[in-house]
DUF58 domain-containing protein
Amino acid sequence: MNNSISRYVRQRSRGHILQNVRQAASTVSPLGWSTLIAAMLTAALFVAWQWVEMLACAIVFAVTFTTAVVLSFGNTALEATLDVASTRAHIGQTVNVQAVVSNPNTRPTASAAADLPITQSAVIPSDSTTMHKHFHVPSLVARQSTLITVQLCADRRAIITIGPLSVRRGDPFGLMRREQRLTESLTLYVHPQICVLHGRQSGIPRDFEGTPSRDVVDDDLDFHGLRQYEYGDDVRNVHWASTAKTGTLMLSRFVATRRSDSSLVLDTDMQGYTSADQFETAVSVFASIGVHWLTEHRTVFTQAGGLRARPRTPTEFLDACCGIKLSEHRTTDLAREAMHRSPRTSLLCFVISPAWSIDDVRRLAVATPMSAQCIIVQLSSTGERGVRMLPECALVTIGSLEDIPHISGVLQ
């Protein structure tokens, strides 16, 4: 029994010692290991060949390494919080990132260098960039804290990962490096620019699974109220019980229900857009239509490159739009993919690049079912604006995001 306890204690002690050794070894940088090995090697050469030059080199290397170890000492037992006023921003907005670094212990801490990485997504996945914000954390007495503010300019649509915040304590020679991670990372969504649309709800009327609208009609499924008969009204809608009671012809009124499952598809083919700004305009059009439909409480299925989502709220949809990127390969059958995800859709809207020819547009529209309305919004490379009613669909041509309100009637 006593032998087992002693063996257990020895194993725990050995494991604790090994852990401390590994932790200490991890603080030595590659340059530090090179300096230590150089000191040992030159010392060995002096012992073997009695070269005074080797002794001088060994002393320089050893003193440098020892000085680096001494300078890296210091209490860095810090805590920190990372916060932003809002995790969502619009293009052009300045975002203040606040880091509160505190000393929760009774002993003062040493000064340290803090590093805050900021990774910003790009339209092309390989172009994502990471920059580092470096700042100085002063020595803190017991229970003291310091506030550090970093300003970010949201200059384009992106998903920005902020953090994690870490502090680093080392020496001027770069031989020792002690790094401590203080926080987790935050995600900031920079929403695309959108244009507010106004209009009435659309969809297939008198559907059992339809969504009630704000309109009141004479013929539907959901009873709303009564009104007096007017010349030309359909007598099939006469409410005979109320007519007999009042002695006046009364007609039933209904809340209009419309099947409003909608599919919104964005063409993300890299070869179709002449510039990143043109693609950003397409994303803004895509986002504007999606937000408008979600505000009308529609069921919306969205598709844009790798994005396949059914957002519940406009904010959720805009968050997803922040991560839309260009694709290297063109999807030739956008309609089939959209109908596969939403076979009961009553309205399909495609936002496409200027590279699509009129024959491509017709083939895309023909692939949609006859029971669904089809609207195709195409960006114009010349800036022209117009609406063309084809037998298969409505083709809307726009030159910029500001053209959307002028053709909002077609989007209804």
Q: What stands out?
A: Confidence is low (pLDDT under 50) at residues 203-210. The longest helix spans residues 2-26. Residues 144 and 306 are 47 Å apart (CA to CA). The radius of gyration is 34 Å.
